[in-house]
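Case study.
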Amino acid sequence: MAKSWEEINARIASGDAVVLTAEEFGALAADEGVSAAAKRVDVVTTATFGPMCSSGVVLNFGHSDPPIRMTEITLNDVPASGGLAAVDTYLGVTEASTVRGIEYGGAHVIEDLLRGRAVRLKASGPGTDCYPRTEIDTWVTLDDLNQAYFFNPRNAYQNYAVAVNTTDRVLHTYLGTLLPRLGNATYCSAGALSPLLNDPTYRTIGIGSRIFVAGAPGYVAWEGTQHNPHTDRDAHGVPVRPAGTIAVIADLKQASPEYFSAATFTGYGVSSFVGIGVPIPVLDEEIAATLALTDADLTATIYDYGVQRRSRPSLGTVSYAELRSGCIEVEGKRVPTGPISSLPKARAIAAELKRWVAEAGFTLSAPAQLFPQVGSQTTKPLEIRTGEAI
Amino acid sequence: MARKRLDLTFPPRQSLKPVIYHLVKDYDLVPNILRAQIHPAQEGRMVLEVTGPKEAFQAGVAFLEEQGLTVSEAASDIVLDDERCVDCGLCTAVCKPDALTLDPDTQKLRFDKDKCVYCEACVIACPRRAISLTF
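After joint prediction, the assembly is written out as follows.
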């Protein structure tokens, strides 16, 4: 029954494509079988809306008169990179305000820009023959900028840890507040809706894939940082630990504050919720079989964040259906759970992307190049060495 | 039986009487201290949930006022800003009395104010800073 990318795109272009969200596809496959669902459906939309620290924007401010080569830059008192050309910068979401600390950071500046608010730009530079100005203090809006686009080095982690704390003190982590003595467990994945859990071997998601980024049409630009296809996998071939990641690019001017939200994790720092949606073509029954997996089939590994080391001990695995029930069992103890990735938002993104593909002619692009697969590079740790040892 | 939340203001120099003890012993009231900020020689505040017979409740309030405290029905409240909330659900992981829960079907956040004990764990846990306590 194999379908080609071209056939599917022709159906999208003519408005005849059958498109379902991953949750809807799972339900259909449960009712009618994977084979029948695969025949009937052309595209399945996947989505996630969770905190993704490795995100940020490339901005070009245009030139003032006389011009300046900006080397020290702040936006609403949040430092941005001065290491690019004269009026280019990169603002990372985790950068904290020099005045308000982690209560306002790069993510908040980006959300303010998306909401149409003016942002105060202050910059200084060395003053050169071609860029004589040494200081500037002005206000900019998103409309004023020449280019403004997301370049997020690591988004949409393929699975993530379930965090618990076996110590006697409260821990403040990027997975939220962890209560002592297994007082709670937090987890961060859209489960059955999650993009990379639906394409576990990166067959359709690769460099050049057209996707939804924070409300804007965008692309997978590269493998994400720390992309690691080698983690443990279940019987379906789906990773049970954090594995693949994607780097994405998209126009900030077409994005929406509905799908990008600044975040502050007390005791940790600034981050941002980023909405990512990926349409997956139902090319054959093999892809359909993974698309049909539900929260009951997908598992995550529980880690003790009380161990402050690179490798934390695993305390077993648990299914997303159990996590969603609000309570899991860890070491014989009933532990209440809380998510960090918003399922209502992920559902809204999957539904919006379904409209794009089914009604607005949003065609799919096959990867121009595949991601590193199992058997390729492994993720290396950072060793601490002295100059003498080199 | 009456059950009310009271906002008490303690003057900087209050009587040395242990007022909460007297509410229990002399007026048969059941106080539940939700929040308190009391320091020596400074004005202090306390939010108290009080349960007891109506008459005893009125007499208890009169007693507190005799001690120099200002008593008002608590205006303090946990406020959830729906515009900022993204339904991530992280607050539900720290809410011990289950006042904050996710709807099993929609997974959207629900807040049952009657179960809230004003511990404020959610206020600092919320990454959107969408939950605040007015005090």
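Observations recorded in class. Chain A has a mean pLDDT of 96. Chain A is about 15% helix and 35% strand. We will return to this complex in the next lecture.
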